[in-house]
């Protein structure tokens, strides 16, 4: 069972199975995910159950596509799904709970990738960044 939830826990989904993860670097997905990229996977709509669906809000991101997010905390819960739904649903990998046995199968719209996301020479920390207090513009 694949499980996911929003930051505040008001919305949860369960999926029986999932595709590999596609990371999208387009500006819409970056903004919807609140980061350097959006990460999404596909599930069968009839194999997904929701708890707290009344807290889902949606945004029509283009004439035929709609995204859903938690109306309380703003966590992206779906990717850009067809307004007239088909048998699949695109779910947000950022909402996955636990350590899921999944892998990234593709990066898309890399021509739109933001330049600051490739700063791989920055130090990595297992816990929080110890320099938050010293950060000043």
Explain what this protein looks like in three dimensions.
The structure is a single chain. The protein has one helix and ten strands. The strands form three sheets. A four-stranded mixed β-sheet has the order 9-4-3-10. With 137 residues, the protein is mainly beta. 5% of the residues lie in helices and 35% in strands. The protein has one helix spanning 27-33; strands at 2-5, 12-15, 21-24, 38-44, 48-51, 56-62, 65-70, 81-82, 88-92, 104-108. The protein is globular and about 45 Å long. The protein has one domain (2-112): Metal Binding Protein, Guanine Nucleotide Exchange Factor, Chain A, CATH 2.170.150.
**Low-confidence runs (pLDDT<50, min 5 residues)?**
none
Using the coordinates above, name the CATH class. Mainly Beta
CATH-scheme architecture:
Beta Complex
CATH topology: Metal Binding Protein, Guanine Nucleotide Exchange Factor, Chain A
**Helix/strand order, N-terminal first:** EEEHEEEEEEE
Total E-strand runs: 10
Distance separating the two termini: 45 Å
The spatial strand order of the largest sheet comes to 9-4-3-10
Number of helices: 1
The biggest beta sheet reads: 4 strands, mixed
Helical amount among residues, as a percent range? under 10%
Strand content: 35-45%
Mean pLDDT figure: 93
Rg, alpha carbons: 16 Å
The best one-word shape is globular
Descriptive key words:
137 residues; mainly beta; Metal Binding Protein, Guanine Nucleotide Exchange Factor, Chain A; three-stranded antiparallel sheet; 1 helix; globular
């Amino acid at each position: 069972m694949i499980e996911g939830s929003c930051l505040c826990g008001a919305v949860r989904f369960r999926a029986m199975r999932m595709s590999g993860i596609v990371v999208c670097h387009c500006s819409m997905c970056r903004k919807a995910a609140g980061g350097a990229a959006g990460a999404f996977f596909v599930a069968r709509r009839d194999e997904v159950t929701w708890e707290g669906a009344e807290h889902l809000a949606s945004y029509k991101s283009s004439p035929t596509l709609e995204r859903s997010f938690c109306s309380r905390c703003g966590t992206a819960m779906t990717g850009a799904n067809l307004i007239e739904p088909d048998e699949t649903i695109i779910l947000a990998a950022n909402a996955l709970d636990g350590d899921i046995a999944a892998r990234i199968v593709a990066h898309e719209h890399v021509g739109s990738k933001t330049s600051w996301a490739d700063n791989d020479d920055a130090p990595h920390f297992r816990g929080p960044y110890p320099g938050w207090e010293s950060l000043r513009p």
